[in-house]
Amino acid sequence: MAYDLSRLLAQLTELADERYRRFNEGLMPGMRGTSLGVRMPALRRLARGIAAEDPQGFLDASLGAQVHELNLLHAMVLARRPNLERMARLRAFVPTLANWAVCDLLCGELKPAPADLDELAAFLDECIASGAEYPVRFAYVARMLYYRDDAHIEQTLQRCAAFRHEGYYARMGVAWGLSMLFLCQRARTLRFLETNALDRFTHNMTIRKAIESRRVTDADRALLRALARPPR
Fold first, then answer.
1. DSSP structure class, residue 116
2. 3-state DSSP assignment of residue 72
């Protein structure tokens, strides 16, 4: 029996919060008309239920959905699938990403096992090669979440050095990821920033995001500000 997506949509509509919907749309230009305004705790409860009842039916039915909350649920349920199925579904879902919220949620939910890292890394390189803005963002954010240990950090920084993209959200994904990388790989990230490998906007936004972190010392803030590149 096909998954009853209309019943789920009715549940989401009952949980909708108009003020939260407007808040979401303000954060994500282009979302207008696609968000219901359901908060994340309620979505996580629904995702757990879907994952326990009929995850495959839901994933089949919700792929390519035009409702923001369905895409968030898709990301959460997909991330819980066994790796073989998950990789196939990632290949189908990532090209449909249309905003940073679903993209970054998917990245954070994946939590790959060590044995799955090589296969995921190859897929992330495919996403970068695609040139599509949100798949590129997905690849860089996922890389800086799961490939920042000593065994992978240099490869991750090499990918960052090769970053070339005009998309605002792709650039912001790299900047945010590198600012987080600074917190766990300070010396290597500093050396990378000193190479000026990034375009001016992404370089300076990385520094700005790092400076904004409460976990960065005043001394490091001064050091980072000194690395900022002046306007042309």
1. G
2. helix
Residue ranges per domain, the chain?
1-86, 112-232
d(C-alpha 164, C-alpha 226), whole Å: 24
Cβ neighbours, 10 Å, residue 7 = 9
Report CA-CA distances (Å) from 96 to 9, 40, 103, 200: 20, 21, 10, 29
213: tokens are: 């972190």
Q: Which two structure tokens, joined as six digits, stand for 227?
A: 């690395």
What would the pLDDT profile of 47-61 be if each residue is shown by its tens digit?
A: 999 999 999 999 999
Each residue's pLDDT tens digit, 118-131: 999 999 999 999 99
Q: How far apart are CA 159 and CA 140, in angstroms?
A: 8
Which tokens go with 128? 């970068």
- What are the backbone angles phi and psi of residue 30, rounded to the nearest 5°? 95, -10
Residue 2 — pLDDT band, cuts 50, 70, 90? confident
Separation of alpha carbons 149 and 165, rounded Å: 25
Specify the 3-state DSSP secondary structure of 155: helix
